[in-house]
UniProtKB/TrEMBL annotation:
ABC transporter domain span: 5-231
Pfam families membership: ABC_tran (PF00005)
Protein known as: Phosphonate C-P lyase system protein PhnL
Gene assigned in the entry: phnL
Organism taxonomic ancestry: Bacteria, Pseudomonadati, Pseudomonadota, Alphaproteobacteria, Hyphomicrobiales
A GO molecular function held by the record: ATP hydrolysis activity
Keywords associated with the record: ATP-binding, Lyase, Nucleotide-binding
Family, as annotated: Belongs to the ABC transporter superfamily.
Gene3D superfamilies: P-loop containing nucleotide triphosphate hydrolases (3.40.50.300)
Length: 233
């Protein structure tokens, strides 16, 4: 199995500058890798550092020590810990996807266009992207009458499903899943499980946080206990 993501010696602490510079160590010596077609789940208690690890991989949090290697297009290996902001934006367009439970609503843009946008950014025509967007919205049981409306007024569950469609529409070699099934009903959880299985078959490497035990059991190939990376205070 080809490695898509490899973390070695990764550490992170937060410094509270407005609180007298108090240092809060979170994780240290984080070492693991994820291969193509594999879904690895980060486990461990609340506050162990699961979200912080995902955010370092997506470049939202700076990584203090170690390296985060991602295999980008053309088999180029990039160290996220040293990537420039411009490089990071390109990686987010083509290489690393992020599916969370929250939709960042873009005013006046219709649900189907919100979903189609990442595929258009990767070079698809608007027509192709809209066909795929509508198919995903249909699979995720978003009523057709909503597709042409901006999602700002949708229910929490409808917005979440629009966001999942947006996260799964494009092909990224690495996909980060941040509680994508939280508060979904059983029918839509089953759709997300199917979407993850399809990504696995397409060789996508996935790293996720999944509190739902049933979903975790169905899609996790491995669980990594983040508590084992606890940093000393
Ligand atoms: N931006 C931040 N500033 C300060 N401290 C932070 C920040 N982000 C996270 N932390 C702290 O880092 C620790 C790990 O948080 P993180 O959200 O990564 O944990 P988690 O394992 O994902 O928890 P949960 O399962 O509850 O979501 C916590 O103690 C949290 O308070």
């Amino acid at each position: 199995m080809r490695t898509r993501l490899c973390l070695s010696g990764v550490g992170k602490s937060f410094t509270m500058h407005l609180r007298g510079g108090i240092r809060l160590p979170v994780v240290s010596h984080v070492d693991f890798s994820v291969g193509a077609g594999e879904c690895v789940v980060l486990g461990g208690p609340s506050g162990a550092g699961k979200s912080s690890i995902l955010k370092m991989i997506y470049g939202n949090y700076a990584c203090e020590t170690g390296q985060i290697l991602v295999t980008a297009e053309g088999d180029e290996i990039v160290n996220i810990a040293e990537a420039s902001p411009r490089r990071m934006l390109a990686l987010r367009r083509d290489t690393i996807g992020y599916v969370s439970q929250f939709l960042r609503v873009i005013p006046r843009v219709s649900a189907e266009n919100v979903v189609a946008e990442p595929l258009i950014a990767q070079g698809a025509t608007e027509g192709e992207a809209l066909v795929k967007a509508r198919d995903l919205l249909c699979r995720l049981n978003v009523p057709e009458r909503l597709w042409s409306l901006p999602p700002a007024t949708f229910s929490g569950g409808e917005q979440q499903r629009v966001n999942i469609a947006r996260g799964f529409i494009a092909h990224y070699p690495l996909l980060l899943l941040d509680e994508p099934t939280a508060s979904l009903d059983a029918r839509n959880r089953a759709v997300v499980v199917e979407l993850v299985e399809e990504k696995k078959r397409n060789g996508v490497a996935m790293l996720g946080i999944l509190h739902d035990e049933d979903v975790r059991e169905r899609i996790a190939d491995r669980i990594i206990d983040v508590a084992s990376f606890k940093a000393a205070a």
